[in-house]
Specification:
The chain has about 1450 residues and is an all-alpha fold. Helices cover about 60% and strands about 0% of the residues.
């Protein structure tokens, strides 16, 4: 005390003014204060307080007790090493005695003594002051002190208030661990210690500093990690509990509220420190990085798991999320749009994303979305934090996708309902951000655009214009997302004639030119800026890769580096591409040899993204060990998606499906090398992940990782690549795949099938008319069965896929299980199991209740056939087979069996026959139709077989693009199946009479199939319909020729052998074969011979064979005359077989009708020989047909002289012969290998000369009708319908050979000529003369003979010149000609039809077609007594007032009047 007074005096003497003495000060004080009853007591307390603040207890004890008590000071008493034999009771007693001597309370003295000891412990050993943890020696001493303090506290000898007051003065020197020990050992709580301090800001600063030091030292020290972890956890729990507790009673005192403010302030200070550290950029392993990582680690369930109530942590997490989202909101919306691609989950700092994920644990996805919505609606936000939070949310929460979409829908609705621009901006930013994470977690930006434009919100009428403008802008944005590819360089000289350069070569030149311009101007070249906007495909695909070629960067940036930096600042380089470039340059610098030259080019930039992708996939594999950590897998999957986008150069639109189909070529699938490397990495990773995950858990307990992985493969750009690679692997390389690949790809196919509703159908680009296939059916179609190896691979793959699906969905309903499996896959498994494993053909003895054999398949030495049998016997699988969609029907079995190629089959011929017999007769024939069988009906089995066989042959022809009709079955895969049809058909022919339900009126099963299929084909005579029908009939013919010939003549089960029925065959010939499978007026040789073989077979079963043959051939003459003419044509090849077989079977001469065919053949030959002419046998048309075929086969030089003998023949024979010659003429124009056209014209001309010479009318041939009966009906059945329709062409082809007096002699000539002219015009308009003109154009000899245009012009001249010469009686029936034959509709294109009824319409259409390269024809148009020209297209003859050709109509109307206009006779002008 004397020292203090001395110091005050010294300081006063130096103050420069006189200082008053102590007595003077006290006197003044006494005078100012009023005397009161408590003044003495207060003065005493003040004195004691003053002494306490400046009292050294040890010195005081020495002064009181003298030197002898020096060994009894408290520091030595509490030091157990110095006073090992002293107990806490002794120390307490000593403190009590000393307090009594001093006259102070023992609690005050004890508190001061303990506080002093703690401070000495914290400041001992001279260690650095920036510490928060005690060393081992300090911790031991503190433990002794706290043991004494607990004794004192238990015996009411310790004052917490005094203790807090003592520590408050020295808090900056107090170690945080010491405070924690006081707290946890209940000496004094942290709340009491903090509340005793009046300066809240100071205590917050102290706690913040020490907590940061604690976090740093936790990551560094391994010796005291447990203590530091417990300290931090306890502090955080206390702060959260006190800072975020709900105040239920507002009447409570304000002390807890101060603690709440202090706790919130400390937590806020720590969070701000962490966020600012992240914003400035942290280096790994730096002290600040460690501190932030440690602090964020406290946001976990372990920290708050011991808290009784979760309300406080929940409020704390919500508050923290709000702080993160609103921290430093300095970015504008434009900045967010520009930079948000850098804020995806993969590019967000791992510490920040880990904070988000920890916050999401306590809050549900619905609460998170609601909180985001609330914060965005009430605060200014940090867009980087908001959008990175959205990315983390959609990545780590499976439910977030739909919740985000619903939130965006609400934002858009609010925007349009209230004209709220902020809501619209928020919606766009959120959708763009979520779409950045790939299609596995959120639809692409373009897809979202499409969907919400199609379903716009309902807005008030006053805002509809705003919605319309928005939709227009959105559609424009959609167009921007899809840009066509162009490869032209930036600086190409288009006027030069140099060779075209490759895009990559031109790109390198463009880069050098751009660098040169940049060096000269210091600005980014205009051409580069324009290319980045208007020619983005070339800019992104060629220019940037050439500019960003990895190299060792110079220390001083050169022109290339400066240009790159300028483009980067202008946002002209995608961040992912720039990041890849920087990483590649760093790698190049590390790998560069010491003596390497600066700027040496390294590997191409495309290699580095693959390496990064491979590294990300390897990291992904490590997450397979714990399938419950969905957020860990999702986080790494986001990194994979980002690396995948970089490797493939994907953009915002690459996750969308704007097309409804995926185009693939399964026969020659090809991929770019880069694409194949990427997809191989992905598929390999999936297979490895599956094997790794299956080692820890079965598929049903592996979590959603596989579905999530597969979803990422279903983007617009990636899915076609994946499917193409699967096509290569499964269809073309399947047998060479390893077991792990089979398992992985099988599981992949199952998950891809589950994505069916979200992906488009697959259109197989091939020559065959294959329909679009849903994804599961397409994947199943890749499994072929052609060879032994392919069949074994199919068995393995189907076993693996079905086992995986059953195991994955073991706990789900049967409906879900059925939706996961492809019916085609199930059917192929049953088929190949029956075929390869005879054990599966028998009935099951007992069903296996064990699970699917997936575990067996994962073994290194898996027995696939044993696993397949186990799966077959498994009860769940057998229950699935009861579903109708999984039934292997008889039709399915036939379709699959037809794919097998016998020469590569694992079954021998005998084994294959046994298998067919079992499948047809034992398995499917007896099965009910509901289960896919035939109900025991052999005819049904044959009908289905024929139907499937025709379909297979049609697809085979389409696949192989066969042009030769004889090669219907180039593949021998169906050879044995057709043999089974032959066997079953023979059984039916020789078996018992058919049951009553198959009545004779229904006909033979084969013709029923033909009739049903033909009715289903498109009708008409257009090229496509004709080719389809002809292709179908070629297969019918092949089947007919392979089955017993008695089918053609009639089934003995339905009719008596003496009266065979050929009705069905005759109908097929008259309606179909006559038009497509014929040579002019005769059928082909094979079908003709087959019919007569059937005739002989039927006759052999008759009691009177000759009578049966005569009846059949007589019926042919009236019902199917073309069979007779066919026999005449092929008689030289047919006669030897007929005579031989008849003589061998019946020992007699040929029947009468066959004898007449022989006689007709002799008649034809005799007419063209020098011998006497034999009399014509039978009907005149038979003799005429024989003569016609003889004329065609005769030499051209002797035809005219030989035809002179025709003058002696009957008129009817000559007329029919002229008809056959007309058919021959048309055949020469339509068939390339038929009789020469000039020869055919000469034959027609000579016969026509004979008819005119004998005054025989032949016009009846051009007026034939089915309703006429008699000869007309027979002749129409002797010619193909296309030939009959082309009779007008034949009529005017012989125009130069017409008799000039025909108009006068024949009253009907004008009628027929005009009718033929109008029909010729119709034929030309409908395009039916195209075949004639095409053949004429290819042949030098036919040029001028088959030109339909020239023929029409000649016919018109002929009519215009001849009409005025016709007698009046020739016009008697003209009124019914023009309206009946008029044309009013002209096809301009397959999708347009114009109805033109006036000259004005003609001018408009002519102008349109002239612009498309059509030749035009000038035609006079007569109207109102005046003649005017109107442009008429020669492709059409327009109808006006019921007349087709105005001039011909005018000529007919004015028949005898002289026409003064010379243009009437003028030829049409082509221009």
């Amino acid at each position: 005390m004397s020292d203090l007074r001395t110091q005050d005096a010294a300081s006063g003497s130096s103050s420069g003014s006189r200082r008053r003495t102590w007595a003077e000060l006290l006197a003044g004080r006494v005078e100012r204060q009023l005397r009161g009853p408590g003044r003495g007591h207060r003065l005493q307390d003040s004195a004691v307080h003053l002494l306490r603040r400046h009292l050294n207890l040890d010195d005081l004890l020495l002064e009181v007790e003298g030197p002898a008590c020096k060994t009894l000071c408290l520091n030595q008493l509490v030091d157990r090493e110095a006073s090992a034999n002293l107990s806490s009771s002794f120390i307490g007693s000593a403190l009590r005695d000393q307090a009594s001597r001093l006259g102070v309370p023992v609690a005050v003295l004890s508190s001061q003594t303990v506080a002093s000891s703690i401070m000495q412990i914290c400041s001992s050993n001279g260690e650095p002051t920036h510490r928060v943890l005690l060393n081992a020696e300090q911790r031991k001493k503190l433990s002794s002190v706290l043991e004494v303090a607990q004794y004192l506290l238990a015996h009411s000898m310790f004052s917490r208030f005094s203790f807090c007051q003592e520590l408050r003065e020295v808090q900056n020197f107090l170690l945080l661990e010491a405070v924690w020990h006081l707290h946890v050992q209940n000496i004094v709580s942290l709340q009491e210690l903090l509340e005793s301090h009046a300066d809240t800001q100071a205590i917050v600063t102290w706690l913040f500093r020490d907590l940061c030091l604690l976090c740093e030292q936790m990551e560094v020290s391994t010796q005291h990690t447990d203590i530091a972890q417990a300290m931090l956890s306890d502090f955080v729990q206390l702060f959260v509990l006190r800072g975020f507790q709900k105040i239920s009673d507002p009447r409570r005192n304000m002390e807890p509220e101060r603690m709440a403010q202090l706790a919130v302030a400390v937590l806020r200070r720590m969070l701000i420190f962490a966020l600012e550290a992240l914003a400035t950029g942290l280096q790994d392993e730096s002290p600040v990085y460690k501190a932030v990582k440690c602090w964020f680690g406290m946001f976990c369930g372990h920290t708050f798991g011991r808290m009784i109530s979760t309300d406080c942590p929940k409020r704390f997490f919500s508050h923290t999320l709000t702080q993160v989202l609103t921290h430093k909101p300095v970015l504008k919306v434009s900045d967010a749009v520009r930079l948000q691609r850098d804020w995806s989950f993969a590019k967000t700092h791992p510490l920040l994303s880990s904070l988000y994920r920890r916050l999401f644990v306590m809050l549900s996805p619905e609460e998170l979305i609601g909180h985001l919505e609330e914060v965005l609606g009430t605060h200014e936000v940090n867009w980087q934090h908001v959008l990175s939070c959205v990315s983390t949310l959609v990545i780590c929460s499976p439910e977030a996708q739909q919740l985000v979409q619903d939130w965006v829908t609400r934002l858009l609705a609010r925007a349009f309902e209230s004209c709220d621009l902020d809501s619209m901006v928020t919606a766009f930013l959120v959708v763009r951000q979520a779409a950045l994470e790939g299609p596995s977690v959120f639809p692409s930006y373009a897809d979202w655009f499409q969907v919400h434009i199609l379903y716009p919100p309902l807005v008030p009428s006053k805002y509809r214009s705003l919605l319309t403008d928005y939709v227009t802008l959105a559609k424009t944005r959609l167009a921007d997302l899809k840009v066509s590819v162009e490869n032209m360089g930036l600086y190409e000289d288009l006027s030069s004639a140099k060779d075209v350069r490759e895009p990559h070569s031109q790109a390198h030149q463009d880069v050098e030119k751009a660098i040169a311009v940049f060096e000269h101007t210091g600005k980014v070249p205009v051409a580069v800026m324009e290319a980045s906007i208007f020619r983005r495909p070339y800019y992104m695909s060629h220019f940037l890769p050439a500019l960003l070629t990895p190299r060792v960067l110079p220390r001083t940036p050169d022109s290339r580096a400066a240009l790159i930096e300028s483009l980067r600042r202008a946002d002209k380089i995608p961040p992912s591409l720039y990041s890849t470039y920087c990483q590649a340059c760093s790698s190049a610098a590390e790998k560069k040899p010491e003596n390497a030259a600066l700027g040496t080019k390294t590997e191409a930039i495309c290699v580095e993204p693959l390496g990064l992708l491979a590294a990300a996939l390897r990291e992904l594999r490590t997450t397979m060990t714990d399938p419950t950590q969905y957020d860990v897998f999702s986080a790494q999957m986001a990194v994979v998606s980002e690396r995948l986008s970089s490797a493939l150069g994907l953009g915002e639109e690459d996750g969308s499906f704007e097309e409804s189909q995926v185009q693939l070529n399964i026969f020659s699938p090809e991929l770019e090398p880069q694409d194949q490397q990427v997809v191989d990495l992905l598929l390999t990773s999936f297979c490895q992940n599956l094997i790794a995950a299956s080692g820890f858990a079965p598929p049903d307990r592996q979590g959603p990782w596989a579905a999530h992985f597969v979803t990422s493969l279903c983007g617009h750009r990636l899915l076609p690549i994946v499917l193409t690679r699967l096509c290569q692997l499964l269809r073309h390389q399947g047998p060479s795949l390893s077991a792990s690949h089979v398992l992985g790809l099988a599981a992949l196919v199952i998950h891809l099938g589950e994505r069916r509703p979200a992906v488009p159908e697959v259109h197989v680009a091939s020559p065959a008319p294959v329909k679009s296939l849903p994804l599961p059916e397409f994947l199943s179609s890749l499994l072929t069965l052609r060879t032994t190896e392919a069949s074994l691979f199919c068995l393995k793959f189907c076993t693996a896929a079905i086992s995986y699906s059953l195991c994955k969905s073991s706990s789900q309903s049967k409906d879900i299980l059925c939706s996961c499996l492809s019916p085609a896959l199930m059917k192929k498994f049953q088929f190949i199991l029956f075929r390869l494993l005879s054990e599966a053909r028998g009935p099951l003895s007992q069903e296996d209740t064990a699970g699917p054999p997936w575990k067996l398949l994962c073994l290194p030495s898996a027995d696939w056939q044993r696993a397949a049998l186990c799966l077959w016997k498994q009860r769940t699988f057998q229950e699935l087979l009861q579903e109708k969609e999984f039934h292997l029907t008889y039709r399915d079995w036939l379709q699959l069996e037809l794919e097998i190629q016998p020469e590569f089959d694992s079954l021998s011929d005998m084994e294959r026959w046994d298998f067919h017999q079992w499948a047809i007769h034992e398995h499917f024939l007896l099965k009910p139709s509901e289960a896919g069988g035939c109900d025991g009906d052999m005819q049904t089995a044959c009908t289905v077989l024929v139907d499937v066989l025709i379909d297979f042959c049609q697809s085979l022809r389409s696949y192989n693009c066969l042009e030769n009709s004889d090669l219907v079955l180039s593949c021998t895969g169906n050879r044995d199946i057709f043999s089974r049809l032959q066997e079953m058909a023979a059984d039916l022919e020789q078996g018992p009479v058919a049951p009553q339900r198959c009545s004779p009126s229904e006909g033979h099963f084969l013709f029923r199939v033909f009739r049903r299929r033909l009715q289903g084909l498109a009708s008409g005579w257009d090229v496509a319909a004709r080719l389809q029908r002809q292709q179908e009939l070629l297969v019918y013919r092949w089947i007919l020729l392979g089955l017993p010939p008695s089918i053609l003549v009639g089934s003995p089960q339905c009719k008596q052998p003496a009266t065979p029925d050929c009705t069905e065959f005759f109908h097929l010939v008259n309606s179909e074969l006559r038009n497509f499978c014929c040579h002019g007026s005769a059928l082909t040789h094979d079908i003709t011979v087959h019919f007569f073989r059937g005739l002989l077979n039927t006759c052999s079963q008759s009691r009177d064979p000759s009578l049966a043959a005569n009846l059949i051939l007589t019926t042919c003459q009236t019902e199917c005359p073309i069979v007779v003419t066919s026999a005449l044509l092929w008689w030289p090849r047919l006669e030897p077989e007929l005579r031989t077989r008849w003589r061998r079977c019946f020992q007699g001469p040929l029947p009468q009708e066959l004898q007449r065919l022989w006689e007709a053949q002799l008649f034809g030959k005799s007419c063209l020989s020098s011998d006497l002419v034999s009399p014509p046998p039978g009907p005149a048309w038979v003799s005429a047909a024989a003569l016609h075929f003889a004329i065609q086969q005769a030499e051209e030089s002797s035809i005219k002289s030989q035809l002179e003998k025709l003058n002696c023949q009957s008129e009817e024979l000559l007329v029919v012969l002229f008809f056959f010659s007309l058919m021959g003429l048309l055949s020469s124009h339509l068939t390339p290998h038929a009789v020469d056209s000039l020869k055919a014209v000469d034959i027609c001309a000579e016969i026509l000369r004979c008819l005119d010479k004998r005054k025989v009318s032949w016009l009846v041939l051009f007026k034939l009708s089915d309703t006429d009966g008699g000869m007309g009906q027979v002749l129409l059945r002797l010619a193909p319908d296309p030939y009959v329709r082309l009779l007008p062409f034949a009529f005017y082809s012989l125009l130069s050979y017409f008799d000039e007096d025909a108009f006068i002699r024949e009253d009907a000539f004008l009628h027929v000529a005009v009718d033929m002219y109008l029909k010729l015009i119709c034929l030309f308009v409908t395009g039916e003369t195209s075949a004639v003109s095409a053949l004429a154009g290819r042949s030098q000899e036919l040029q001028g003979q088959g030109d339909p245009v020239g023929l029409i012009i000649k016919a018109r001249h002929f009519l215009l010149q001849s009409i005025p010469k016709c007698p009046e009686k020739s016009f008697a029936n003209m009124a019914e000609v023009t309206p009946r034959s008029s044309v009013a509709c002209v096809l301009l294109s397959p999708n347009h039809c114009l109805n033109i009824k006036s000259a004005e319409d003609t001018c408009i259409v002519a102008t349109h077609l002239q612009g498309h390269g059509c030749q035009l024809l000038c035609w006079p148009w007569v109207s109102g007594g005046r003649t005017r020209l109107s442009t008429v297209i020669f492709l059409q003859l327009l109808a006006t007032s019921g007349h087709c050709d105005p001039e011909v109509s005018a000529a007919l109307l004015s028949r005898h009047q002289a026409v003064s206009d010379d243009d009437l006779y003028q030829e049409p002008h082509l221009f």
